[in-house]
Structures are given as C-alpha cells and as structure tokens.
Amino acid sequence: MPDPIDDAKRALRAELRERRQLLTDAARKDAAAGIAAQLEALVDQVGAHAVSCYLSTRAEPETRPFLNAAVARGIRVLLPITRVDGLLDWVVADPDADVTEGVLGIPEPVGELLGPIAVNDVDLMIIPAAAVDRSGMRLGWGRGYFDKTIGSIQGCPPVYAVIFDSELLDEVPSDVHDQPVTGVVTPTRTITLAPEGR
C-alpha cells in the first residue's frame, strides 16, 4: 500500500540530490569555507569541548576543513560509523587516519570503536541532512541512523544540521520517528529553529 509521506520524502530527496549534483566546484569550495567559519563560531557560542560531526560525501556541504581546524584547536570530535543493526558507533577524529567505505558506501574513518553511547558525552551534534524546515524538522537520506541516535540520547545536546542555503524550506514531509533539530548551519548563516524541540 503506497505511503504518501514516504513518496513525498523520496521525491524531495531526488530533487535535492539533483540540485546538489549541479553545483560547480567553485560553489562547493566557497560553501566549504563558509561552513567551516559558521561551525567554528557555533562551537565557540555553545562553548563545546566535544562535538560529533561526520565526514561529508562529495555531494554534501564539506565538513573536513572544520574537522581539521577543530582537532587542531584541541576539541574532541567524534565521527560516526554505521553498523548493520541500524545504530551508529563512534571514533575519535584524527586527520591522519585512513578513510574507508562504510556499510552504506559512504566515507567513514578507521579507528578504535567507542560504542554507540560515546555520543552521550558531546556538547554539540553536527549532522547531515537533505533539507530542514523552519520548524526544525529534518529530512535525512532515509536510513534513520541519526533519528535513532538523537531519539535515544537523554539530555540531548544542541543538534545542528549542515545544509546548503536553498535547503532551508518552509516544510518537509515528516513521520512520527523523525526527530527535529535545534537549528541549521549553512555556508552563510547559522539559524536556531527549535530550541525547545531538542
């Protein structure tokens, strides 16, 4: 039986994926610099000593300049490792560590696995998204890893999704298991959307 919410999510993800593929290398480079500056300012604003982030794919807003700068500043950065059971494991970011292809075919670091609950100790979560709406509802890429993680953390820290400017929408389709985010980080701004939603 067709699910209208799933169908709407699939259609929107396809449109967003296509838009991202059309970005020029120059636009991606500019976006990477903006994302790094916005994330560094957010870390300072939150006063975070430990954060979770992720290794971006080529289609995503670039996170590596921020990751390298954060580690150089002495901030503990945890990076996710996908598991076959649908949970995320975590490793400490090391700019010199090898990168391999994870369960979903996305880049993941090689390192000592800390276990799914390691993320409970971060002061700020930085996560990927396809889009976010103005109420803070996030549209992910359909696997549910981050929704499960966010939903399982007691006293969850602020959660910010990294997106391109055009991906902050008026509304995204959502289901009961979808988790809102505190705000978004784009190449040009950081916006708090749902401070009470976390």
TrEMBL record:
Domain of life: Bacteria
Entry's EC annotation: 6.3.3.2
Pfam families: 5-FTHF_cyc-lig
Top-level taxonomy: Bacteria, Bacillati, Actinomycetota, Actinomycetes, Micrococcales
Cofactors that this protein relies on: Mg(2+)
Protein name: 5-formyltetrahydrofolate cyclo-ligase
Key words of the record: ATP-binding, Ligase, Magnesium, Metal-binding, Nucleotide-binding
Organism per entry: Microbacterium protaetiae
UniProt keyword annotation of ATP-binding present: yes
A biological-process GO annotation: folic acid-containing compound biosynthetic process
UniProt xrefs under PANTHER family: 5-FORMYLTETRAHYDROFOLATE CYCLO-LIGASE, ATPASE INHIBITOR/5-FORMYLTETRAHYDROFOLATE CYCLO-LIGASE
